[in-house]
Write a structure and sequence with these properties.
Blueprint: H1 2-42, H2 45-51, E1 52-60, E2 63-65, H3 67-72, E3 84-94, E4 97-105, E5 110-119, E6 122-132
Parallel strand pairs: 1-6
Antiparallel strand pairs: 1-2, 3-4, 4-5, 5-6
Helix pairs in contact: 1-2
Amino acid sequence: MRARLAIGLAGLLLVLGAAHALADDTEALIALDKQWGEAGGKGDTATIAKLLADDLVSVTETGVRGKKEELADNEPAPAGTKYEPTDFKVTFLDANTAIMTHSTTGDDAHVSLHVWSKKSGAWQVVATSTTPVASE
């Protein structure tokens, strides 16, 4: 009986510890996504390059492209443009893979889907898709 209780408690602690670790990564991923958006607004290609995986797959309204095309398309936003991400949802497939969705408001309102992968201890976007939100 004691052995079962000990095993059960150990299992519960492992599950709780894993859930806590994933919750910590949720906030880290949201912070990275906000960093990506802010860097895009400034035309900061160097920062964006660190956040995008070399084998990135990006789906846009004009088709499918890779990291090279994403970086080449990066230009500073017009003065006064605001990047306002909202409604973040992060779902972990495992400790090294997460799916994030969020929307933005403002001049470039859109809904995004990102797949984040942790490689060598660093999170990077391996797939992304953005859908513009029709203005009213």
